[in-house]
Amino acid sequence: AEPVLVNNEITRAIERLNPLAPLHNPANVLGIRAISKKWPELPQVAVFDTAFHRTLPEHAWRYAVPDELYTNHGIRRYGFHGTSHEYVAHRAAALLDVPVEEFDAVIAHLGNGASVTAIRGGQSIDTSMGFTPLEGLVMGTRSGDLDPSILVFLGRNGWSPEDLDSMLNRQSGLKGLAGNNDMRSVVEAAEAGDAKAAMALAVASYRLAKYIGGYHVAVGGAKALVFTAGIGENSHQFRNLVAQRLGALGVELDAGLNRERSREPRVISTPTSALPVLVVPTDEERAIAEATAAVVAQASVAR
C-alpha cells in the first residue's frame, strides 16, 4: 500500500497484521493509539515497508502451496525493508550516474533485521523476506530460511506456536549460533578464536552470498552490489567475508576502501571488479518524513 493518513480503519488493519510482523506492528499500534488519544487532530501517516515490493512478479511472490491459502488467507511473499531498498536504489543509481529506471543491482540491507533485494529497472523484482520478516537471511535474532518440517517435528514434541514464534524470531540467528546478536561482538569473538562466532559468520555470509548469486541471475546480470544499514555500512569484516564468496562473479574489494568509515555513498571495489560494490548509507527516517510530508500536503489540498 502507498503511504496513507491514519484513521481507525487503518489502525485496526495494522493491528490485524500483528502476527506477520510481531517485532514491529504491536509497538507501532501502541504509538498510534497513544498519539491519537493525546493529540486527536494531529495527522498521522502510515508508511508501509512492503510497498516497494508491490512490483514483484507473481512467480516471485507465490508460494507453492494450495491456492486457497493465498485466496482465503493472503499467504504470499510480501517483503520488507522496502523504504530502505527504494531510498538506497535511488542513491546508488545517482552515485553511478545511471538513471534509476535503468538501474539493475542487488541491495543488501544488513542490520539486526536483514534482507536482500533484486532490483531491475529501479524496481524490486525479488526480495528475501517473505510472508513475514522471518524468511531469508540469517539475522540478529531471526533464523531466516529453514526446513518447515522442523516446525512440524517440534510441534509434535510439545512446542507450542508461541514457543516456536519466540524461538525463531527472538532466540535464533546470530544469537542462536554465537550467543550474541550484536555483529560487532560476534566479529570480535571470532577474531579472538571463538569457534561458535566464526561459524555464525560463516553461515550468515554463505547464506547472503547464495542470495546475491541468485539475484544476479534474476536481474539478468546486476550492474552493482550495494551494502547498506548498520552492518552493511559499518562491518568491513562481514562485507569482506561475503565478497570472498563471490569470486565466481568477479567481485573484488579494495581492502583500503573497504576499511574506510564514511557517512557518504562510496565505491569499495577495485577498478578490475566485474561489478562495482557500493556502500550507501540508508536513511529510512528521511524517506518516511518525505513520504509523510507529501501525504499531508496532498490531504491539505484536498480539503
**Unreliable residue stretches:** none
Provide a count of the helices.
14
- Biggest β-sheet description: 6 strands, mixed
The sequence of SSEs as H and E is EHHEHHHEEEHHHHHEHHHEEH
Secondary-structure arrangement, i.e. CATH architecture of the largest domain: 2-Layer Sandwich
CATH level-3 fold name of the largest domain? Nucleotidyltransferase, domain 5
In whole angstroms, the N-to-C terminal distance is: 22 Å
Q: Structural class, from secondary structure content?
A: alpha/beta
Trace the largest sheet across and list its strands: 5-4-3-6-8-7
CATH superfamily caption of the largest domain: ATPase, nucleotide binding domain
Radius of gyration: 20 Å
Number of separate domains: 2
| Backbone shape | globular
Indicate the percent of residues in helices: 40-55%
Mean pLDDT: 94
CATH class of the largest domain: Alpha Beta
Binned strand content: 5-15%
Keywords:
single chain; 303 residues; alpha/beta; Nucleotidyltransferase, domain 5; 2 domains; two-stranded antiparallel sheet; 48% helix
Write the layout of secondary structure elements.
Elements: E1 4-5, H1 8-16, H2 25-38, E2 45-46, H3 58-61, H4 67-73, H5 82-95, E3 105-110, E4 114-120, E5 123-127, H6 149-156, H7 161-170, H8 173-178, H9 183-191, H10 195-218, E6 225-228, H11 229-234, H12 236-244, H13 255-259, E7 266-267, E8 277-279, H14 284-302
Parallel strand pairs: 3-6, 6-8
Antiparallel strand pairs: 1-2, 3-4, 4-5, 7-8
